[in-house]
Specification:
The complex is a heterodimer of chains A (449) and B (346).
Chain A: E1 9-12, E2 34-35, E3 41-45, E4 55-56, E5 63-64, E6 69-72, E7 81-82, E8 87-96, E9 102-110, H1 128-138, H2 150-154, E10 164-169, H3 178-185, H4 187-200, E11 205-211, H5 215-227, E12 235-240, H6 249-257, E13 272-276, H7 277-289, E14 295-301, E15 309-314, H8 319-325, E16 335-338, E17 345-346, E18 360-364, H9 382-386, H10 393-401, H11 405-411, H12 421-425, H13 432-446
Parallel strand pairs in A: 1-12, 2-15, 10-11, 10-13, 11-12, 14-18
Antiparallel strand pairs in A: 3-9, 4-6, 5-8, 6-7, 8-9, 14-15, 16-17, 16-18
Helix pairs in contact in A: 3-5, 4-7, 10-11, 10-13, 11-13
Chain B: H1 22-44, H2 46-69, H3 80-90, H4 98-113, H5 126-137, H6 139-142, H7 159-164, H8 172-181, H9 188-193, H10 205-217, H11 224-240, H12 245-253, H13 257-264, H14 275-295, H15 302-319, H16 330-345
Classes of the chains: A alpha/beta (449), B mainly alpha (346).
The complex binds iron/sulfur cluster (2 copies).
Amino acid sequence: MSHPSPGAILKAVAKGRGGIHVAHNKITADCETVRMPPPRCVVLPMQQHIGAPCAPTVKKGDHVDVGQVVGDSDKYVSAPIHASVSGTVTAVADVKLANGRIAPAVTIESDGQMTLWEGLRPPKVTNRQELFAAIRASGLVGLGGAGFPSHVKLNTPPDKPIDTLIVNAAECEPYITVDYRECLENSWNIMGAVYTLAELLDLKNVVIAVEDNKPEAIRVLKAIADEDNDRGDIVKLMTLKSKYPQGAEKMMVLSATGRKVPAGGLPADVGCIVMNVASAAFVSRYLKTGKPLTSRSVTVSGDCIRRPMNVRVPIGTSIREIIDFCGGFTEEPYKILSGGPMMGQALVSIDVPLLKSNNAVLAFSRRGVGLKPQRDCIRCGRCHEACPMGLIPTQIVKYANKRDAEELARLGVSVCMECGSCAYSCPAGEPLVQHMRLAKEIMREAGVK
Amino acid sequence: MMNETAKLTVSASPHVKGPATVSGVMFDVIIALCPAAIAGIAVFGFRAALVMAVCVGSCVAFEYLSRKIMKKSVTVGDLSAVVTGLLLAFNLPVSIPLWMCVIGSFVAIVIVKQLFGGVGQNFANPAITARIVLLVSFASAMTHFPEPKSVDAIVSATPLATLSGFDLSGDLTGQIHLYQAADKLPSYFRMFLGVRQGCIGEVCAAALLIGAAYLLIRGVIKIAIPFSYIGTVAVFMLLASRFNLAFTAYQLMGGGLLLGAFFMATDYATSPVNLKGKIVFGIGCGLLTSVIRLYGSLPEGVSYSILLMNIACPLIEKATAPAYFGFVKKKKEKKAKEQAKEGAGA
Ligand code: SF4
Ligand code: SF4
């Protein structure tokens, strides 16, 4: 008899409450990732992660090769920045970022060669500490959009032992398909990372979570998991009923382990780490090649893009160039987003560089975004039903307008992850996420926790 | 293609919105009220339609005028005034003088709704408050319930008024049969179809249930309030009548219970948004209704119960606040801390 079914598929229903059904619009799902030719120049902002900003380590006129460090920090919660093209540093100066902030950046004019830096070597990794050091050196930050330095996330304090790694391939945001493509195109890397991490971090459980609307990804991953029987049962594939925001960390932990992350806590508080699938695949590639994070895949889509597709782009490429590569616009866009339609950010301009954490560039016409007249709240309670965190947005709005920090604390605003489910469901078209941010701001000002 | 000066729109996420709109929700309520409206006209004749038209018309007009006068955006398009007008008409006897309808609409829209800031802001249900104001001011017109299809015919008592004359400790089944035989109490079938005395919209249980099913399927209302409301009344009546099913059936179908439980107690603005709150709210309505009906001086208590619970709604919401994700109870937290301390001490 064959083994009882290692790598058996774990079926998880969307645990917990709330959530919404959004049109998936994954039109680029079947587009194989296309590598973009080297751009004319790249702009590498010195802060592409949560944590301490980097300081430039090169100066104007220097020649750099792909993978060479151009910015680093001596702080632990930070990730170095590497040249993503080979060429000459033409400026080390402040630039405007997608979020409107100004940050110092290194601009490199490409020589079109994409010469790899000769100093690149696969890291030697035999234990935890070496692993964290290697991941820090690779410049990896959460590729799913959060942008938190990965080595910090993996390096949990000793009083919080980790037993479960969750590889997040849910990709519940509409339109985005980079993680899905990663599953299909780099499944071996994903599994490689899973085994390495499981061994070095001494994990008992690894759960790869995919939404059940991606049968192809499930098939591919399962095939590989099945092939590797001798690893026992530590790796499980979990299919999730597709529902937004199924891919949110806390939701993921609940679905995979049944554990609830306490308010104000992190998955590590309940023994879990959640890692984006593209990040995991990168770890595996890096350990093999030593080539740091200098490019990433992005979904370019939306109803204004002539040729929606997935592109592999050097970090720091201007978003305008990426859009041009995809055939430009079919009509004048009304809104351009970096990230998904639910949590992404509306861009003021497309002349901004692509950051490590940007997983999509979406351009919509006026028709593409659901506009509806904004009316007064009718207290219908739909926002409360939709909220995966069990908050009551309509009441939060009420107390935010009164600037009542005590009441806001009682209502638990701080657990809001700004997923947008509430605003999506609101028939009155209230900009609820904006109100949630305001409410958090009020609490911060009042110093209430 | 994009010229350099093109302005991109920047706003907070999410950048897609669901299909629900306020007018869509209100339209669903109107659709759900249609069966009962048709039944009302079928039972009481054309004048029922007239009463509805006057109520809806004056509600919309008052809404328009009061928004204009207060210099606020005109919100007639959200259809909420139409719903209020229909519900008000449903709560009036068919013989009501039309000018009273206009006064009722004024109370509902101007005083209860707009003076408190418009839709979603009122603390009490506009239609119910208007009905109570009319009831207190024009008691005889409001309790004059003509027999079906004969506006000026002899007036006898509504089923509930008849029931309230019964001796609860006596032989209820016997009394009910006696009255049914004497045609002073409609048969169950007539009760279900609505061929009985009462307010325009409350009489036809069948039509109300069809409308309620529509609202539930469309997700406009949740079952929590009607279920706990009607359930509480049912249990109370069963106990009070020593498990007399006939008596309980009349109580459930009689008066405005179904209309109130499905269409008025579920009013968004004046009922709790959270599940636990909804259940408490429904049970409260049920208890008050039963007590008023059996032990109060009035035969019917749906309106008063809902109004009272409306007023208590903010309190209920506070007391039943749901635990948000990862919420840690203060007590537990303390315990955990103490344990940690003990552990450290030992
Ligand atoms: S969904 Fe919108 S209209 Fe309904 S209660 Fe929430 S904020 Fe108000
Ligand atoms: S944005 Fe915040 S309040 Fe709204 S649904 Fe998401 S977690 Fe809940």
